[in-house]
From TrEMBL:
Example of a GO biological process term: mismatch repair
Pfam families xref list: HHH, HhH-GPD, NUDIX_4
Span of the signal peptide: none
Function: Adenine glycosylase active on G-A mispairs. MutY also corrects error-prone DNA synthesis past GO lesions which are due to the oxidatively damaged form of guanine: 7,8-dihydro-8-oxoguanine (8-oxo-dGTP).
Annotated cofactor note: Binds 1 [4Fe-4S] cluster.
Keywords per UniProt: 4Fe-4S, DNA damage, DNA repair, Glycosidase, Hydrolase, Iron, Iron-sulfur, Metal-binding
Domain HhH-GPD positions: 35-186
NCBIfam families: mutY
Protein name, as recorded: Adenine DNA glycosylase
Biological source species: Croceitalea dokdonensis DOKDO 023
Record field: catalytic activity: Hydrolyzes free adenine bases from 7,8-dihydro-8-oxoguanine:adenine mismatched double-stranded DNA, leaving an apurinic site
PANTHER family on file: ADENINE DNA GLYCOSYLASE
Length: 343
């Protein structure tokens, strides 16, 4: 039996029942694919359900404020995905009459949609013969064919795409593409693949040469940067606090946070001079909430974070009642602090 037929047979017998597999609506498939980038199915499922409930159509999402979309996304990380998703919804409504393109090439023109997502939507919804290549597919193809070319190199990306096209099914591309990703996620899993009961084990090069643990190959990432964040948590005479919105193109763009002091080294104390712009008066009390920094790990940087509690008997201008904080989209480490802190 050829490769694609084995994948289809396995998928028919083992596929998980997932809500986005019961539809050919490109809007819902698109939401699922954006959420599942860098996200496991178990984590992404409740987000998908909330997004579809909150925004049943692309027009509903286009009408939403970006802050609302970011708040619904809170906790998934990689917030540019949510911003791009919102921007694309507005583009589809304003320029495409509320309808997603039905071709791979047309989908590629939308913000936040790359090769993989365009291939997925085009094949799942419109049966276009486009191979999908996500992390699961890279792993399966690399092991099965014994390819040690780095999957995140320019040459590797090109070769694996060509190979995926060569072996794909041309009669049932919808199920085949979902099947090969499912196979990689469950059968040919990253750490504990089920090689003993794998239908491809007799012809798998990595298994035959004892290289399962070595493949796929990835180029090493650039060095992780270490940063020190000091959040200034104001509690004024009315039990209110200050939030500010992050601007620019850095991490957490357009999310909210407590006023931030970013330093090169860990801070042991804060001076009154560093608080002068907060309007706290001359004698605010300063208390360090956590003596040991909380380490928040992102893909490219680790944030060593301290929260400083600043109490003042003054009423601070433009402050926000504490009970209103859950309405604002914030990074997950701040959301966790808000849940724990008792003022």
């Amino acid at each position: 039996m050829i490769f694609s037929e084995e994948i289809l047979k396995w998928y028919r017998e083992n596929k998980r029942q997932l809500p986005w597999r019961d539809t050919r609506d490109p809007y819902k498939v698109w939401i699922s694919e954006i959420i599942l980038q860098q996200t496991r199915v178990a984590q992404g499922m409740p987000y998908y359900q909330r997004f579809v409930a909150q925004y049943p159509t692309v027009s509903d999402m286009a009408r939403a404020r970006e802050e609302e979309v970011l708040k619904l996304w809170q906790g998934l990380g990689y917030y540019s995905r949510a911003r791009n998703m919102h921007a694309t919804a507005k583009t589809v409504v304003s320029k495409l009459n509320g309808k997603f393109p039905e071709t791979y090439e047309g989908l590629l023109k939308l913000k936040g949609i790359g090769d993989y997502t365009a291939s997925a939507i085009a094949s799942f919804c419109f049966d276009e013969l486009q191979p999908v290549v996500d992390g699961n597919v890279y792993r399966l193809l690399s092991r099965y064919f014994g390819i040690d070319l780095a999957i995140n190199s320019t040459a590797g990306i090109k070769q694996f795409k060509e190979l995926a096209k060569k072996v794909m099914s041309t009669t049932n591309i919808r199920d085949y593409n979902q099947g090969i990703m499912e196979f990689g996620a469950i059968q040919c899993a990253p750490r504990k693949p089920y090689c003993l009961h794998c239908p491809l084990n007799k012809s798998c090069v990595a298994l035959a040469t004892n290289r399962i643990a070595e493949l796929p190959v990835k180029l090493k990432k650039s060095k992780v940067k270490l940063k020190h964040f000091n959040y200034l948590v104001v509690v004024d005479a009315n039990g209110q606090t200050i939030l500010e919105q992050r601007k620019g193109k850095g991490i957490w763009q357009n999310l909210y946070q407590f006023p931030l002091l970013e330093t090169k080294e860990e801070m042991a104390a804060i001076s009154l001079g560093q608080l002068k712009d907060l309007g706290l008066g001359d004698h605010p009390s300063i208390l360090l909430y956590n003596e040991r920094p909380m380490v928040h790990k992102l893909s490219h940087q680790h944030l060593y974070t301290k929260f400083w509690i600043l109490r003042t008997d003054k009423v601070v201008a433009k402050a926000i009642p504490w009970e209103k904080l859950p309405d604002f989209p914030v990074p997950v480490l701040i959301a966790d602090f808000i849940k724990r802190f008792k003022f």
